[in-house]
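User: Second chain of the day. Same drill as before.
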Amino acid sequence: MAAKESPGIEIGIYTLADIGADPLTGKTISAGQRVKEIIQAAKLADEAGLDVFGVGEHHRLDYASSSPAVLLAAIAQVTKQIRLTSTTSVLSTLDPVRLFEDFATLDLLSDGRAEILAGRGAFIESFPLFGYSTNDYDELFEEHLDLLLQLTQNETVTWSGKFRPSLRDAEIAPRPVQEKLPIWIGVGGTPESAVRAGRFGVGMALAILGGNPRRFKPLVDLYRQAGIDAGLTPETLKVGVTGHAYLAKTTQQAKDEFYPYYSNYWGYVNRQRGMGTRMSWDDFEHMASPDTALFVGSPQQVIEKILKQYELFGHQRFLAQLDIGGQPFKNVAKGIELLATEIAPIIRRETSK
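Assistant: Same format as last time:
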């Protein structure tokens, strides 16, 4: 019997729902408008045939999404095929039972399209908000992940830990459409996180926002080895790559159009972190060069970058963040169209061989 041909890697987009002033017009849209545009972007991505749509979680006034499950539930009603994931759920400060039940409900609403991508969070504003201490950063994540995975496997759960009340024969409802709700862990660059994802047997999503992607290869190797050591088969260990992207007909056009927005984006993200640095055009040129992980360019240039990473990682999923820095929605819509029509078919063909 001939081997079944793989469909190639999944391709999608995600948003963190940042609200920034458009650097060209000085205008800032409302949180309400931002949320409506995100729902519209998901609808376009679904109609164009992309595989995955992700929504992030932040608890700040300059972001519009503190509840990915609620936004994704709205998106579920206007889409048909696209898989719906958080990118990421800050698991350290979320109650795992509440998180699971929200996404199990999303799974029912979407006929089995929900996933959870859990992370420790790049920002720490959710810790004081929900009464947790950053001193417990790692321990909280580990304990909450352990409970979350038990919830995906069992209708009734008995569990005890350090940070939340114990559960005794607790009924966990509703149950999702999918036999098991897919769980991924977002990994920013620490070997411990990669090993943890492998040990728990969940997917690993790498946030590669710049520089040479080669430096992430050791993390992928650690992840796969930890999974195999834990008794898992290589096929069950899934790797995803996420990164910033901007697409145009030519690479020069993409760079010219994107620079004001990308510089703006890093300007306000750095200010949020207490740094006042500004990105120069030379810095940007270097960040967008062919050997880096910033997906800015013509479809051909971006295809080459994705395939180069595929050679390195052999990953199963690629997600692009298209809507950063206060861009007008028309730019995002154009990016979705180019990703779906000119990039995805070639990537799927090349990675299905």
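The mean pLDDT is 95.

User: Great, on to the next one.
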